[in-house]
What we know:
It is built from 8 helices and no strands. The protein is mostly helical. Helix 5 packs across helix 6 (85-96). It is elongated and about 45 Å long. The two termini are 26 Å apart. It comes from Clostridium botulinum CFSAN001627. Residues 8-106 form the HTH araC/xylS-type domain.
Amino acid sequence: MDMKDLILEIIEHIESNLGQEMNLDTIADKFGYSKFHLNRIFFENVGATIYKYIQFRRLSVAAEKLVTTGKPIVEIAYDTGYQSQQAFSIAFRQFYGYTPLQYRRIGVFIPLLKRFTAQNIIISLYENINMPFAA
């Protein structure tokens, strides 16, 4: 499997499991690489560690749901992989600067990180560009 395909498979796995318990260890086990090697090649191609990619994607999905749905905040927290509303609210405020309720009331969705695509990876691989948090 080439590097681009590996990164795309990891991203697909992350995106498909954002609401599930997942970390670098479980992802490394699934793909058969050491966590250090996997995290290094992911960072070199995506511009973020696997942990940060998961965290920013979860918060971005949550932010979109806050603005576009009427779901209770606690339900959005659980849907995006947080174990409690408190943990979700702390993380959300840290990155967005607002509580989830304040953000919902503002009503404008701004993603922290859009899903990384094959196009981003191709550019990164062939131009040797580190594309942190590409939109």
